[in-house]
Amino acid sequence: MPPFITKDGSTIREILAPRNSTIVRQSLAEATLDTGCSTQAHSHPDTEEIYFILEGKATMAVESERESVGPGDAIAIPAGRRHQIANIGEVPLVFLCCCVPAYRDGDTIMCDPLI
User: How would you list the strands of the sheet with 4-5, edge to edge?
Assistant: First the structure.
């Protein structure tokens, strides 16, 4: 699948999703954020997510919690929780994003910055 820009501003390449496979309840995508960039703070009322960092360094915010994350770190984002990730490294930030149910723009609610 060709990459696309999500509502939060990250570049996504869907690996498996209802749009390109036989799965129907979840999606797995590779997200990329350039150096110095961040997603827009947002929430997903119906979707829980897992981010798994492959490359780069970031600050991850889930509601009022802030953590520095890097390769091998996993972040659990419960449905409805506001979140934002910012690339603080010197290389593009690359991470996997698993969504249940599968990602859709209509389940993305933008909010004020967390970082």
Answer: 4-5, 11-16, 27-33, 93-100, 48-55, 74-77
Please write the tens of the pLDDT for every residue from 35-63. Answer: 999 999 999 999 999 999 999 999 999 99
Whole-angstrom Cα distance, residue 16 to residue 64? 31
The answer to whether 51 and 62 have CB atoms below 8 angstroms apart is: no
- CB-CB contact of 34 with 86 (8 Å): no
Residue 18 has, within 13 A of its CA and on its CB side, a CA count of: 9
> Tokens 């506001």 sit at which residue?
82
Going from the N-terminus, what domains does the chain have, and what CATH number goes with each?
A: 4-110 (2.60.120.10)
Amino acid at 57: K
Check: pTM over 0.85? Answer yes or no: yes
CA 110 – CA 89 distance, rounded (Å) = 25
Contact between residue 70 and residue 51 where contact means Cβ atoms under 8 Å apart:
no
